[in-house]
Specification:
This protein has 644 residues and is an alpha/beta fold. It contains 23 helices and 14 strands.
Length: 644
């Protein structure tokens, strides 16, 4: 408190205090008006001075941001919180007497040998003086200060590390047997008062910034007592990523306990937050553990990660996806003639091998958003070859239950799906890319023969001709006529006998490369004609999609492989949750533009916005009461293991 303020007197009507901390009127007009109304007790004069002050006795104790430091003698003046309003007027009220007594308790005779300071606890925050650099005085006035005893030798700290499974423990660590969950702490032995150490979930503790702090640098803050500046006894207790430090001074009996993380209930936030971050971003716990081991950072075993996942993370992911999916299906039910695309992704790299899992994805092709993901296990459908039909059937059932009207569906060339959609009376189109991929493989093998090398010059043109045929033809017969015209075109003949497409649409330019044209009757032309005019190819050409393709679904399959690689085993529920995460990630970034320069890479980089939403759901809703969210998980039918 400055001298100028010490000479002032509180302007509140009836108060003559001039020794307590004084505070000037705030800058905000609404708060300033309430202060003036309180100072004059409602009788506001016509002219009000700008230098009005109010003493601290007229504020409740919760209006100060540093009351604890001020009471401990570690702060020179009180600071009120923004928006605080004086509310204590009479000196006999409970609030007034409480504040008065709190401010009167500031005087501490720290240096007096006959009157030692009272022992007290200081929550979980460091004092201001602890964070300051310690200065050693070179001149001591014996008339005003007692003779200090020699600084004792620094005692060895006793570290109680209870993470037995951590391979980084040294010989100085002592293991204490404990039957508690590795992520929970016993409030009676680790924490301070539960009212001070426990934070509610509404405080958004998982949004606090976190830093890497080395042990030596951290414990330097507790070596010296903040009251008498002498060496203190320090005891640490760790559990995975959580560290609790107990400091006690043998001289002035000062003590406190400090926690490296906020505590929600009995669980350190950092442990659950690390598990949730690894899971929701599609990372690998084992790779993360290798990184932590290399950096000598504390972590928890895989069993703890799985317990977090099953109890909190997976129920939150299922709830998040079901909520997003319900909103998408509700919007689709309000539209007419919805066009969707479907495709299956098998969990097998080699063709011909039976896969355990298969995921069938349904996409709204107008918005390129994933609206449904079905996970199938081979033993529940009679083999991996039946997965695609069963996945489509389940998705169509869901669409029908949500009253979604389908105009058409685009898939690959699968005979079982074709029969299913014919029975359901749904227009079925084939994806051009799937058909082009099969034709390109066949023609590529033919072009490798010595007598058919000329076909190499036509492979790209035939591929482009297939796409042009699908996009430019609204009807099946026209697609077939345009498709078969390629056989005349490769012979340098550009008029055709089919009246549907009698002539090529390109300009009649003379080619400079005469060697590229094929001749009828040669081996190359005969093999080309046999492939392009087979019954199956002509039938499939009629069903080519004229508007939308499933290329975006192939991009979504790449996202799935980022969250659930094929070379990693996942249980059924874990695999399903990773599919949901991949769908959330894809839908959140589907409208992001593609970068065309290095300056646009930041704006066009996919952002995991869904991760923050899932973390909010975990800490604010699922963690306090996981019961309702587990109901949705229990409704998911999980098939028996393949060995069963």
């Amino acid at each position: 408190m400055s001298k100028s303020k010490a000479k002032q007197t509180c302007h509140v009507v009836g108060c003559l205090d001039r020794h307590t901390s004084l505070h000037r009127l705030p800058a905000r007009e609404d708060i300033r008006a309430k202060w003036i109304h309180f100072i004059y007790n409602g009788n506001i004069p016509s002219s009000v001075s700008k230098n009005l002050v109010v003493c601290a006795n007229h504020f409740a104790s919760d209006c100060f941001s540093n009351l604890g430091q001020y009471k401990a003698g570690l702060a020179m003046r009180l600071f009120i919180k923004d928006g605080s309003i004086p509310s204590v007027r009479g000196k006999d009220t409970d609030e007034g007497s409480a504040t008065k007594s709190a401010l009167a308790a500031v005087v501490h005779h720290v240096a007096c040998q006959t009157d030692p300071p009272a022992t007290r606890r200081v929550g979980t925050q460091l004092s201001m003086q602890t964070l300051q650099r310690n200065f050693k005085s070179t001149e001591v006035d014996v008339r005003s200060s007692p003779v200090a005893s020699p600084r004792p030798c620094k005692r060895a700290r006793m570290e109680l590390d209870e993470d037995k499974e951590n391979p980084l423990e040294g010989s100085s660590f002592m293991d204490i047997p404990d039957t508690l969950d590795p992520t929970c702490e016993d409030p009676a032995t680790v924490l301070t008062d539960s009212a001070n150490a426990t934070l509610e979930s509404s405080d958004s503790v998982h949004k606090m910034a976190a830093y890497i702090v080395h042990e030596r640098c951290l414990l330097e803050l507790f070596e010296v007592c903040p009251v008498c500046q002498r060496i203190t006894d320090v005891q640490t207790r760790s559990r995975s990523t959580f560290l609790s430090v107990a400091q006690q001074c043998r001289h002035c009996r000062y003590s406190r306990k400090w926690n490296s993380q906020p505590i929600v209930g009995d669980t350190p936030v950092g442990n659950l937050q690390l598990s949730a971050a690894v899971y929701t971003t599609g990372s690998s716990f084992f790779k993360l553990k290798k990184i932590f081991r290399a950096m000598r950072m504390k972590t928890f075993p895989y069993d703890t990660f799985r317990r977090h996942a099953q109890t909190y993370i997976e129920p939150a992911i299922v709830h998040k996806w079901k909520t997003e999916q319900a909103d998408m299906l509700r919007r689709l039910s309000q539209q007419q003639n919805v066009i969707i695309g479907g495709d299956l992704l098998l969990r097998s790299d080699s063709p011909g091998h039976s896969a355990k899992f298969g995921s069938y994805s349904m996409m709204d092709l107008r918005s390129n958003t994933i609206v449904d993901v079905q996970l199938l296990q081979s033993n529940e459908v009679g083999g991996s070859k039946h997965m695609e039909k069963e996945g489509l059937k389940r998705s169509l059932t869901l669409m029908e239950e949500r009253s979604v009207t389908l105009q058409s569906i685009v898939t690959d060339c699968h005979p079982d799906i074709e029969k299913l959609l014919e029975e359901a009376n749904i227009t079925h189109y084939y994806d051009v890319w799937h058909m082009e991929k099969g034709l390109s493989k066949k023609l590529g093998k033919i072009a490798q023969k010595k007598a058919c090398e000329k076909l190499n010059k036509w492979l790209c043109s035939i591929k482009n001709h297939l796409y042009w045929t699908a996009v430019s033809s609204p009807f099946g017969p026209e697609r077939v006529a345009k498709w078969t015209s390629i056989l005349n075109h490769v012979q340098d003949i550009h008029t055709h006998d089919d009246p549907v497409f009698p002539q090529c649409l390109h300009s009649q330019n003379t080619s400079t490369d005469k060697s590229k044209w094929l001749t009828a009757g040669t081996q190359a032309f005969c093999k080309l004609e046999k492939v392009l005019t087979s019954k199956k190819v002509l039938k499939d050409v009629q069903r080519l999609s004229p508007h939308y393709q499933t290329s975006s679904l192939e991009a979504f399959h790449d996202v799935i492989l980022c969250f659930a690689p094929k070379n990693v085993f996942f249980p059924f529920l874990g695999m399903l949750c990773r599919l949901y995460l991949a769908a959330l990630h894809f839908n959140k970034n589907v409208g992001r533009p593609q970068a065309t320069s290095a300056l646009e890479e930041g704006e066009c980089t996919p952002q995991p916005d869904y991760v923050e939403e899932v973390l909010d759901l975990i800490f604010e809703k699922v963690f306090p009461d996981p019961g309702p969210y587990w109901e949705a998980v229990l409704k998911i039918p999980i098939p028996e293991d393949l060995s069963a």
